Amino acid sequence: MADPPRPPSHLREEHRRTVSEPDGRARRIPYRFEPDATAADLVERFGALDDGAESGTTATVAGRLMLRRVQGKLAFATLQDNSGPGADGRIQLFAPAGTTPDFDGFCSLSLGDWIGVRGEVMKTRRGELSVRVDEWALLAEARRAFPDKWHGLTDTDTRYRQRYVDLWVNDDARRTFLLRSRLLSLTRRWLEDRGFVEVETPVFHTIAGGGHAKPFVTHHNALDMDLYLRIALELHLKRLVVGGFEKVFEIGRVFRNEGLGYRWNPEFTMLELYEAYADYGDMMDLTEQLVAHLATELRGATRLTYGGRPLDLTPPWRRASMTELIEERTGRRLDLTTPLDDLRQACDEFEVPWTAGDGPGVLLLELYEKTTEAELWGPVFVTDYPAEVSPLARAHRERAGYVERFEPIIAGREIGNAFSELQDPVEQRATFEAQARRKAAGDEEAMAVDDDYLRALEYGLPPTGGLGIGIDRLVMILADVATIRDVILFPTLRPEAGS
RNA sequence: GGGCCGCUAGCUCAAUUGGCAGAGCGCCGGACUUUUAAUCCGUUGGUUCUGGGUUCGAGUCCCAGGCGGCCCA
């Protein structure tokens, strides 16, 4: 690909010439390099070496040059590799002029250059574990200047657009994404250990179902038809329960055509799982056990802090109905038996907008979200949602007008959604049709009738518990970060000017 | 979508009421054999986000736009 013409500002960032061999030729970059140790390994194995001692062991390491201290006939440098966030992944390089090949070339390396080094593992007189530079090779030149070695990179825009730089200079960024990776791995293993099977279902949907959200639309040329990017995993996974996958899960990207914010990115990662013969109570048990397991593995405890405030994820978590929590928060007893006019009056009082088409269930949910949800530090399972706003959940076994549904709330945010799943195809068709009427009336987030899903239910869905967890939000809690953009490697951004 | 705040050298930041656009780090050159944000000396580096306007004079004031952050819906 030809380089486009560059503006002067880019040329200025090419801050130096190509590093050359002692004879002036361009330095050759090897095609491969074989490190046999990492910074973290060496600290672990040789950390106890005496000051000034040599280990008698030779190691080969590779990474980026992050600091450099040339002192005449002796040079020190700090190499960072992938073996740990921040200081855990750093090792000092020790380069005396007398033994270092092409000492001048080594001293002329810049911050950000990739190098490979082979040499004796030793400790300096001042007690810093080091690899002596008996051999070294330039692996890549940093032709753009690295950010300030002390202040790093703080501009959020640059951090998100140039994550490849952020990961090197901000320890927290690397730490958070390593935590995210481990969280995904631990979640898979934990579920598999309990007999769950991981599957992959389509990202392109002909009907965007399973959630309350505006979908993205794309077009398939050969079929000449519009397709939606999935807003949820739910309906395909329940088809698989019909198909006999009794414990099934998927961790996948979903897409919602909504605004961006500290908790919202248009594409995000959902875990959804379905368990035959289980109900929403079982899903609460599973949720608190899984989250407690992840907290223990990733943070060493279930008593954490989030944003400086204590957060105790130790099971069991409180379980309380939505109406009960609204009453605690507002002092008002509001439920589905409250006259519609009273609910509307409460909405006006709490500045909740409503329309004439909104039933009591919609108003109750809106009131809950406006007055109560953000105040719940939790963890707490908010249970028993109005049927009117829960078209895929099964009717509550005791409370008329409600369904068996809960959302786990942590730090004022919903991190998931779960039901005793609606089994009955006749009831399901009725709730789909109610949704379709809302859609026809202008609710862009309402669902459409999914005839194939209804056909699947007609073959028989056993009693099933289903759970969805927003992985990004869970990572936010466990990594103790405030914005979703800090847990998504390449968050959605507006294009840069001029691109 | 609304309100508020921000955008100055590669990075982190200064610049009194409108009055010569600066520092540290980086980069480049020099000194230095136990440094670790090494230190010391000397350079280099600017479309002050963009476009208009007011003014003798605009980084600074006004208008429009771009991008980002925070709060609200």
Task: Give a structural overview.
The protein has 14 helices and 20 strands. α6 crosses α8, α9 packs across α11 and α10 packs parallel to α11. It is elongated and about 90 Å long. The protein is α+β, with helices and mostly antiparallel strands and 499 residues long. It folds into two domains: 134 residues, Beta Barrel (OB fold (Dihydrolipoamide Acetyltransferase, E2P)); 256 residues, Bira Bifunctional Protein, Domain 2 (BirA Bifunctional Protein, domain 2, 2-Layer Sandwich).
Number of domains: 2
Identify the overall geometry.
elongated
Radius of gyration: 29 Å
Number of strands: 20
Determine the number of helices (DSSP H or I, runs of at least 4 residues). 14
**Uncertain ranges:** 1-17
Topology overview:
Elements: H1 8-13, H2 39-46, E1 54-71, E2 74-80, E3 90-96, H3 103-107, E4 114-123, E5 129-132, E6 135-140, H4 156-161, H5 163-169, H6 171-193, E7 197-198, E8 204-205, E9 217-220, E10 225-229, H7 234-242, E11 247-255, E12 267-276, H8 280-299, E13 303-306, E14 309-312, E15 318-321, H9 322-330, H10 340-349, H11 360-371, E16 380-383, E17 405-410, E18 413-414, E19 416-420, H12 425-440, H13 451-459, E20 464-470, H14 471-479
Parallel strand pairs: 3-5, 7-11, 15-16
Antiparallel strand pairs: 1-2, 1-4, 2-3, 4-5, 4-6, 8-10, 9-10, 11-12, 12-20, 13-14, 16-17, 17-18, 17-19, 19-20
Helix pairs in contact: 5-6, 6-8, 6-14, 7-13, 9-11, 10-11, 12-13
The protein binds one RNA strand of 73 nucleotides through residues 7-9, 12-13, 15-17, 52, 67, 69-78, 92, 94, 96-98, 110-111, 124-126, 128, 144-158, 160, 169, 259, 262, 353, 493-497.
